[in-house]
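Suppose you are handed only these lines of text.
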Amino acid sequence: MTDAAVFLTALGRQLSVMSLYGPGHNARTEGMDKITNELTMLLRGNAFPAFTFLDGDVVYEGHVLNELRHWEWSLKLGDVGIERLEVGPGTTRDALEGFLEEAHARMSLEGEGASFQEMDGQTAIRFGGVTLDPDEADVEEESHHDPLALSLEDEAEVIQWLHGEVDLHGVVPADEAAAVVKLLSVAMHSEHDVVVPLVQLKAVDQYTTTHSINVSCLSMALAEHLNFVSTDVRSIGEAALLHDVGKTKVPLEVLNKKGKLTDSEWVLIQGHTVEGAKILLASGASMALPATVAYEHHLSLNGEGYPELTFKRQTHEVSRLIQVCDVYDALRTRRPFRPPWPATRTVKFLEEKAGTHLDPEYVSAFIQMIGNWEPRQVDLESEQDEAAA
Ligand SMILES: [Fe+2]
Ligand SMILES: [Fe+2]
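From them, the structure of the protein bound to fe (ii) ion can be written out as follows.
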C-alpha cells in the first residue's frame, strides 16, 4: 500500500474506534500514535499532502487512489462537508486529533444540527468543502494561499497528463478522466448557484486542454439545465472532456497554423474525429459514449461536416448536445488564426445555425442556460508547453 493509503486507512480506523470508545481510552491513544507515525512517513515523500474525497473515491496528486476505491470513509467525510483534507508539514498530533474529533462530531448524531467551526489557520491541517472562486484566488496570490480553494490548474495538469498517456500508450486512462469530471462537477457546485468555469490560457498551445475543460463544464451545465439525472450528467461531462482527444494525433504546427490550411493539413485536422473514436474504443467498454461523440461531433444536423458517412443518419443526442457547447467555446476563444468572438455574436451564430447545423432544441436550451448561469472566466498560468495539444 502507498503511504497515502496507509495514512488514510489509519485515519478511517481511528474514526471507527472513536465511535466505540470514549476520550482517553487506550484504543484511541494507540490509534493516534499510529496515525502520527503514518503522517511522518507520508510527509517524507510529499511535503504538502492533499486529499479530495469524492463519491467514495479519494483523489490524491491528481489521481484516484486505486487502493481506496469505494472507500466508506470518503463517502462519510464528503457527506459531512469534508471534501478536502490537507496536512502540511507542521501538522501536530493535537491538530490531527482535533480534526478527527470534528469529523467524528459531524458524523455522530450529537453533531447533527450543531454549528460546525472549521479550524483556523493556526494549525497546518486544513479541511472543508471544495470551492472554486477565482476572484478570491487572485486576492490570495498577494496574501496567503488558501489550501482549500480548488484551482482548475490541477485539472488542467491531469488533462495534459491524460493527453501524454494517449500519446505514449494510445489509450485514455478512464479512471483519471472520470476523476477530473467529478472534480469539475464539484467546482461547479461549490456555491449556491451553479458556476460554469470557463478557462482561458495565456498560451495558445494549451488550447485543447482549456477547450476540453470548458466544453465539459458547459455540457454538464446544459445537461443539468435539461434535468438529466446526475449519472447521465457525469457521462456527458466525460464524453465532452474527451471529444477532441484525437487531436493528440495532429501535429501542433497544423493545429495552431495561422494561415490557410493545405488540403493535406485539412485532412489531418478532420482525422481527429476518427482517431479520437479509435483511441477511445481501445480504452475500454466505459468509453463507448465518448467514442461516439468523438466520431460525430463535427457532423451537422443536415448531414454536412466530417467524417463523411456512407449512409446519412442522425447523430446521437449527446453528440448534438455537446456540439452546441463545442461550437460556443471554440468561437469564444482566441485562436492563432482569429480573435475571440464576443458573446452576443456567438449566440447569434448559434441561432443562425439552429435547425440546419445544430440541434435547435439544444441551442435554445443553451442560450437560456447561459443567460441564467453566468460563466465565470478562470485564468490559468501557462507554465509548460502542452506537448500533446
Ligand atoms: Fe473537434
Ligand atoms: Fe472541440
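What can we learn from it? The CA atoms of residues 296 and 319 lie 6 Å apart. Residues 26-45 form the longest helix (20 residues).
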